């Protein structure tokens, strides 16, 4: 078979990319292949496993029509602006329409240093690339908008980190790789025509209705604000901590991107931080909605020359538009929590909100495992409250809450459809990655099987539903691995 890719991004926005080629890996071997995603992209899995398929997956065989580029973007990293970041170790190979007719970016991560590498080696290790594969596929199965992973290859090239590790390349599939940082980069050039072309490209690709609006660029801003609000609310409802919400890691599409230091909370605590470099807790669990708002303000700033005739009018319009963010966030969060608690639609939103607030206070106080709690709570709705009660130190507090909740008539079966039993728990991810780095892929495959059907309890997967053992300790994650 032969793959044909489009080069629309490279053609329409040449200022935002540098033509580049992936390094040829000395000994490429397929570690995982996402066959269902391959099918959706019209790619034949058997061919992908062949020598030419492997060359395609490694970026070595450039498909017809493709013009691979390292994308240029800026970004606020932990609040400080870096005007020129860009893909230091990634490449956009090109675009492909999937079986729904949606255009998808096909991109590589770990494919060698580009002109944006800033002294980095441009490489990636097997562990972190499999981590992105596992967590992004879990997010997809949980119904959270996300970039996806088509494959991870080991390259046969060692990567120097604190120790020498086996190198890998990940093939990432995304609605696009346009980020807030792409707009920051375009705005910083001072070239309003480039900014407008970028905005038009984003509208055509993600929000075509905005083109018909009275103010298309304001409509673009509002659409991105709504998509991000709904995304962050979903993260919050599943206990996901992204860990590095820099503006270069916030997409225009509203997909989760960049699975570096991310992790799921075990014990519920609003201040949870996993990333080793986030000493101030800027990207702590509870801060994520506010940080998304801050990032969107940076996005709005870039659009000011396009929003209205004067900058003042543009600022006023953008400020009003933040209501879209607040409303969408509240709606997605409250409907998500209503579903997790199995509450019928006729229960008033304020009743749900106060029940949720009380519950989160109790979970924090007793450091309750967030994910398994809700499955135990479904059992409580069925009449067996003991597993849930057993999680609380403040039993009297929980009992009071439990009786107010039960009085509202929760539906246990719908709770089981809203509350995952299997998530990529930190201790399981670490265990699987350690084994894979040593050459044993079985634990990765098992974990993928569990998290790819997160709501379906299956025999043999009991340990995948359990919280980390007590001796697992504080979990720390790392950037740029
Ligand atoms: P991240 O925090 O992972 O989004 O990465 C921030 C920036 O660092 C991006 O521009 C990446 O391309 C770049 N980067 C991260 N790791 C490496 C690496 N090993 N080599 C080159 N660039 C890197
Ligand atoms: Mg990034």
Q: What order do the helices and strands follow? A: HEEHHHEEEEEHEEHHHEEHHHHHHHHH
Instruction: Please give the number of β-strands.
Output: 11
Could you give the order of strands across the largest sheet?
Answer: 2-8-9-7-6
Share of helix among residues?
A: 40-55%
Give average pLDDT, whole number: 97
The rough form would be described as: globular
Ligand inventory reads:
adenosine monophosphate, magnesium ion
SS content category? alpha+beta
Query: What's the main sheet like?
Result: 5 strands, antiparallel
Active site: 248
Binding site for Mg(2+): 249, 258
EC number: 2.7.7.-, 2.7.7.108
Protein name: Protein nucleotidyltransferase YdiU
Question: Short summary of the structure?
Answer:
By secondary structure, the protein is of the alpha+beta class. Among the domains are: 8-177, no CATH class; 181-338, no CATH class.
Q: Can you characterise this structure?
A:
- The structure is a single chain.
- This protein has 481 residues and is of the alpha+beta class.
- Among the domains are: 8-177, no CATH class; 181-338, no CATH class.
- Helices cover 44% and strands 12% of the residues.
- It contains 17 helices and eleven strands.
- Strands 2-8-9-7-6 form a five-stranded antiparallel beta sheet. The chain has a two-stranded antiparallel ribbon with strand order 1-3.
- β4 (75-77) and β5 form a beta hairpin.
- α5 crosses α16 (426-437) and α5 (126-141) runs parallel beside α17 (442-451).
- The longest helix is centred in the C-terminal third of the chain and has 30 residues, at 311-340.
- It is globular.
- The structure holds adenosine monophosphate and magnesium ion.
- Magnesium ion (MG) is lined by residues 248-249, 258.
């Amino acid at each position: 078979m032969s793959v044909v890719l489009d080069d629309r991004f490279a053609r329409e926005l040449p200022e935002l990319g540098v033509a580049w080629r992936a390094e040829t890996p000395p000994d490429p071997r397929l570690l995982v292949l996402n066959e269902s995603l391959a099918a959706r992209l019209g790619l034949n899995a058997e061919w992908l496993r062949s020598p030419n398929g492997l060359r395609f997956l490694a970026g070595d065989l450039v498909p017809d029509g493709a013009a691979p580029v390292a994308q240029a973007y800026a970004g606020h990293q932990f609040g400080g602006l870096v005007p020129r970041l860009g893909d230091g170790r990634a490449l956009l190979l090109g675009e492909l329409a999937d079986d729904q007719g949606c255009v998808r970016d096909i991109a590589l991560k770990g494919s060698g240093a580009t002109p944006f590498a800033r002294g980095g080696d441009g490489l990636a290790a097997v562990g972190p690339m499999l981590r992105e594969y596992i967590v992004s596929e879990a997010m997809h199965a949980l119904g959270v908008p996300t970039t996806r992973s088509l494959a991870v290859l080991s390259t046969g090239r060692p990567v120097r980190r604190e120790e020498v590790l086996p190198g890998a390349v990940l093939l990432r599939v995304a609605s696009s790789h346009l980020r807030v940082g792409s707009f920051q980069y375009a705005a910083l050039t001072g070239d309003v025509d480039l900014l407008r072309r970028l905005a038009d490209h984003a509208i055509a690709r993600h929000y075509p209705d905005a083109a018909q609006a009275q103010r298309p660029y304001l409509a673009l801003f509002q659409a991105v604000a709504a998509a991000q609000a709904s995304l962050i609310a979903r993260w919050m409802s599943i206990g996901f901590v992204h860990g590095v919400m820099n503006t270069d890691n916030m997409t225009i599409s509203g997909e989760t991107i960049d699975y570096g230091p991310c992790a799921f909370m075990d014990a519920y605590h609003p201040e949870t931080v996993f990333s080793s470099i986030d000493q101030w807790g800027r990207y702590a669990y509870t801060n994520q909605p506010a940080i998304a708002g801050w990032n969107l303000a940076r996005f709005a700033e870039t659009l000011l020359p396009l929003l209205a005739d004067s900058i003042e009018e543009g600022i006023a319009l953008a400020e009003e538009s933040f209501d879209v963010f607040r409303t969408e966030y509240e709606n997605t969060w409250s409907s998500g929590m209503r579903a997790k608690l199995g509450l019928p639609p006729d229960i008033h939103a304020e009743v749900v909100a106060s029940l949720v607030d009380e519950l989160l206070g109790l979970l924090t106080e007793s450091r309750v495992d967030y994910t398994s709690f809700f499955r135990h709570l479904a059992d409580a709705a069925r009449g067996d409250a003991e597993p849930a009660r057993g999680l609380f130190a403040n039993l009297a507090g929980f009992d009071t809450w439990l009786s107010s909740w039960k009085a509202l008539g929760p539906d246990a079966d719908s709770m089981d459809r809203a509350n995952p039993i299997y998530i990529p728990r930190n201790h399981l991810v670490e265990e699987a990655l350690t084994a894979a780095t040593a050459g044993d892929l079985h634990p990765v495959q098992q974990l993928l099987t569990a998290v790819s059907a997160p709501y379906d309890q299956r025999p043999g997967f009991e340990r995948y539903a359990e919280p980390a053992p007590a001796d697992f300790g504080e979990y720390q994650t790392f950037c740029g691995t």
